[in-house]
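Our consortium's second objective concerns turning raw sequence data into structural hypotheses that experimental partners can test. To show how far this objective has progressed, the report includes one record in full. It was chosen at random from the queue rather than selected for favorable results. The single chain below, 71 residues long, was entered without modification.
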Amino acid sequence: ALGTRTWTALGLRLGMLDIVPTAAEATLVGHLGPDVLDPEARTADMVAAVRGCPGTIAEALLDQRLLAGVG
């Protein structure tokens, strides 16, 4: 369990957990592509990234460097 004044999170069966300050988040997730649920993400950019993948559509959708949150 991890808690603050505002939030409490309970993790079960966690293989690995890194707790970092917000300012250091990019060290863990900076390589990920845009989040598909981010209202500020540009759809055209995400479509272009998937289309530019040399593999299959399944490989492109699972590649978190192109889009985060699909696979």
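The partners drew two points from this record. The helical segments are 26-29, 43-51, 57-62. Strands lie at 2-3, 8-9. Both points have been shared with the crystallography group to help prioritize constructs.
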